[in-house]
Amino acid sequence: MKEKGFLLITGGAGYIGSHTVKKALEKGYNVIIYDNLSTGHRELVAGGNLIVGDLEDENTLEEEVFAKFPINGVIHFAAFIEVAESVADPQKFYFNNLVNTLILLKIMLKFKVKNFIFSSSCAVYGRPQYLPIDERHPLSPINPYGNTKLAIENVLNDYKVAYGLNYVSLRYFNAAGADESGKIGEWHIKETHLVPLALETALGIREDIKIYGTDYSTPDGTCIRDYIHVNDLADAHLLALEAILEGHIEGEVFNLGVGKGWSVKAVISKVKEITGKDFKVIEAPRRSGDPPILIADNKKATTLLGWRPRYSLEEIIASAWQWHKKLRERG
């Protein structure tokens, strides 16, 4: 296998980061993982060289990573992601998500590393003005989390103009699922995502699962979301990096979703079907800021990157079910 150089993956011990690390290793990259393990897990790292450190620790980042390894590309996952927490404590999010990214970019430029893949979010769009959402949709985040992602996207564009930074921002919709190996998957200490919450309820870890709002203007009254398998996301990161390294792209944004939505009730029903478990579902009031429908237009990614999401909702849930059963056995 031809070596593709050294690739730094920040947050590579986290959910999407760990799946991307595994894919990158399979593709022949020499992978350096930089993670403070505050939300990631050492056990999820499939290989490569794990360096434990904070992005705000410039000395460690510079001396233990960039000075030691000839990095030629960076995939940046390290960020806080919980929307409600960002509203309650925006300072925490601006320092970690925005300031620490500026530190990373500063050291990259110092070492003349100019290839950057950014883990962004559909949160940059805010409430959809039309569906499906394409990359031309107005950008109007409605929470500090989305604000930090958009701020970084603006920084990247400015750095491209001023410093020749090559970048791709990948705007995820709803990541779900787990690697088919069963060795890595979604593992949050504080879980807030629908699929793992439903699976934990099926396993008896939770007494019930709540549906927040059943009176939306959707066929069954519950919110509709676009669920994308984590390995499809990992593939997109590496396709984007390869497009940069081959000189096809210098600065772009792409939506990553399957282009189809499923309601909360439909997902819960599918979890019950796949697990063979019935469990208690409680209807609760709406949460503030939840749009009725979020669905991606992914034509730009499929056209320019040659990316194709491969997993169905059934496959997403089945892979996550295998992982969560193993995670529970692990304790």
What is the compact description of this entry?
This protein is an alpha/beta fold. It is built from ten helices and 14 strands.
Q: Helix/strand/pairing class, anyone?
A: alpha/beta
Strand order of the largest sheet: 3-2-1-4-5-6-11
The shape, in one word, is globular
Cα distance, first to last residue? Answer: 37 Å
Q: CATH homologous superfamily of the largest domain?
A: NAD(P)-binding Rossmann-like Domain
Tell me the fraction of residues in β-strands, as a range: 15-25%
In total, the number of strands is 14
Per CATH, the class of the largest domain reads: Alpha Beta
Regarding quaternary structure, what we see is single chain
The average pLDDT value, as a whole number, equals: 96
Question: What is the fold-level CATH name, i.e. the topology of the largest domain?
Answer: Rossmann fold
What's the architecture of the largest domain, going by CATH? 3-Layer(aba) Sandwich
Tell me the number of structural domains. 2
What is the string of SSEs from the N terminus onward? EHEEHEHHEHEEHEEEHEEHEEHH
Helix content range of the residues, please?
A: 25-40%
Describe the model.
- With 331 residues, the chain is of the alpha/beta class.
- The protein has two domains: 6-176 and 227-256, NAD(P)-binding Rossmann-like Domain (Rossmann fold, 3-Layer(aba) Sandwich), CATH 3.40.50; 194-225 and 259-330, UDP-galactose 4-epimerase, domain 1, CATH 3.90.25.10.
- It has ten helices and 14 strands.
- Strand 1, helix 1 (15-26) and strand 2 (30-35) form a beta-alpha-beta unit.
- The longest helix has 21 residues, at 90-110.
- The two termini are 37 Å apart.
